[in-house]
Amino acid sequence: MLQLLVSFGPLYTTALILGCLMGLFVCNRLYVDYRIRKVGGVRASVLATNPFTGLQFLMRAAYWQTRDKLDYYYRSLFNWASPECPNCVEIAIFGRARFLMTQEPEHIKTILTGKFREYGKGERFHEIWSPFLGDSIFTTDGQQWSDSRALIRPMFVKDRVRDLEIFDRWTMTLIEKLPASGQTVDMMDLFYRMTLDVTTDFLLGGSVNSLNNPKHEFVAAFQEVQRIQMLLTILAPLRSIIPTYRYKRGIRILERFVSPFIARTLSLSPSELDKLSQSDNKDLTFLHQIARTTRDPKIIRDQLMAVLIAGRDTTAATLSWTVYELARQPRVWARLRADVLNTVGRHNPPTYEDLKGLTFLTHTLNETLRMYPAVPYNLRAALQDTTLPGREGQPDIGVLKGDIVVYSTLAMQRRRDLYPEEWATAKMEEKGRGLAVDEEVGGLADPGVFCPERWERWTPKAWTYVPFNGGPRICVGQNFAMTEMAFTLVRLLQKYERLEYRGDWHGQFHKAEIVGAPGHGVPVAFFEAENGSAV
Ligand code: HEM
């Protein structure tokens, strides 16, 4: 064969190879079109269907990600969409697998509930994430996922979350670390350390204690592993060229920390574990709970890592954005503080009931999660040939087995057309997020402005607000997270009368890794009430 090609000469050989590639491409395209028709669908707005046009989108995603502008890039994709399908675009690169990027609530609803069994994490996601999260709740589908969920859920029932001792311990440690009134501190750094300490304490019964020991090797390793994991996910088709030495070394460091806890728990007999699990036993940890169901150290390790990644950065980033926005809006801080002093008082730790009764505080956290959903991008693979709903009056979109649907809650929750008309135009003259929002009245705020009061007048339409996802895979730690964040804010509100931002408002940006956090941290100064007065 090779001899035959050589006898043709280089020109003919090149033409032949190009011809074959072209033939393959045309056949592939026809075959995809055929299967899409077979499921009764059409294509989404097509941006690329081959490596020549498709690779540039991938490279641009990597380019904007390294410049921390992935949100800008993602939203810009829809500028090329057709009017028939304005919120879902298709990019195909190699073979038959396609990427569908969406910011459409009906698509998110379909993936997460209506056709839950037809979409999942998929084999590729499992392969890319398994060195870190193994076969955990985060990386599996079907029965394996359902077993993991059953294993984990009991630790998040209301009666467990009601125990606020861990939150109190670590919030008070955080407050001890704050400098004197008026001095600048990066709250984001402290929140990340605090939530690591809370989560490891809750999971293992022993904390990394990073608030007291910021240079603990676990801290840097956890961050590095997540950074590289995000790159491996975004650049999935090119992942073999990404160096993974630091990734693997980071995972080993994390394992070195959790392994002794696992070994100690497994040295307990089943009856000792059962005794620990008696209700109200404060020594019971997540680890004990899982060890009652499985004694396989690998399964335990995988689930621990999954809950650690799910629970730590999400709450830290949300707290960071909340404090950033509260520093911008003294009126919100003052109202929250008055509520807290009336309900909880100046010194007592809040009870679970106190926290649930602080409605404006809940609205404030909801508002943060509306503007800065902690998981800004997510994906699902089609597990079989299926569809996504088309626009009203338009056919459905065909999705083929192996296609990846990327959905962005960040892009969707910032879509102005999903908000009532009068709100979208109310503050148009400020061109989006102005600094002067104090004169905001009655919750009639532009959707681009942080305004907790809007929640007193407005309920988002179904599936237009899903920071915790929805459907069977809804965040299992939602109540834990809301309680932890509210507790922390109450403790800060009790002590400090006001706060001031000490960073550059205009320089701040949304840094999206697995979780989206303020790119410049949150440098602020807190001020205690003069003479210890309450308000
Ligand atoms: C502001 C805080 C949080 C936000 C915004 C958040 C958001 C989410 C989202 C969007 C998912 C869906 C991921 C997916 O299916 O691809 C998820 C899943 C999950 N979250 Fe959270 N989360 C938060 C805090 C927590 C906390 C504190 C914990 C536990 C300590 C936790 C545990 C989990 C677990 C185990 C899952 C997997 C559920 C499953 O696949 O069945 N999360 N979370």
From TrEMBL:
<feature type="transmembrane region" description="Helical">
    <location>
        <begin position="12"/>
        <end position="31"/>
    </location>
</feature>
<dbReference type="GO" id="GO:0020037">
    <property type="term" value="F:heme binding"/>
</dbReference>
<keyword id="KW-0479">Metal-binding</keyword>
<feature type="binding site" description="axial binding residue">
    <location>
        <position position="475"/>
    </location>
    <ligand>
        <name>heme</name>
    </ligand>
</feature>
<keyword id="KW-0349">Heme</keyword>
<comment type="similarity">
    <text>Belongs to the cytochrome P450 family.</text>
</comment>
<dbReference type="Pfam" id="PF00067">
    <property type="entry name" value="p450"/>
</dbReference>
<dbReference type="GO" id="GO:0016705">
    <property type="term" value="F:oxidoreductase activity, acting on paired donors, with incorporation or reduction of molecular oxygen"/>
</dbReference>
<dbReference type="GO" id="GO:0005506">
    <property type="term" value="F:iron ion binding"/>
</dbReference>
<keyword id="KW-0408">Iron</keyword>
<protein>
    <submittedName>
        <fullName>Cytochrome P450</fullName>
    </submittedName>
</protein>
<dbReference type="InterPro" id="IPR017972">
    <property type="entry name" value="Cyt_P450_CS"/>
</dbReference>
<keyword id="KW-0503">Monooxygenase</keyword>
<dbReference type="InterPro" id="IPR001128">
    <property type="entry name" value="Cyt_P450"/>
</dbReference>
<keyword id="KW-0812">Transmembrane</keyword>
<dbReference type="InterPro" id="IPR002401">
    <property type="entry name" value="Cyt_P450_E_grp-I"/>
</dbReference>
<keyword id="KW-0472">Membrane</keyword>
<dbReference type="InterPro" id="IPR036396">
    <property type="entry name" value="Cyt_P450_sf"/>
</dbReference>
<dbReference type="InterPro" id="IPR047146">
    <property type="entry name" value="Cyt_P450_E_CYP52_fungi"/>
</dbReference>
<keyword id="KW-1133">Transmembrane helix</keyword>
<keyword id="KW-0560">Oxidoreductase</keyword>
<dbReference type="GO" id="GO:0004497">
    <property type="term" value="F:monooxygenase activity"/>
</dbReference>
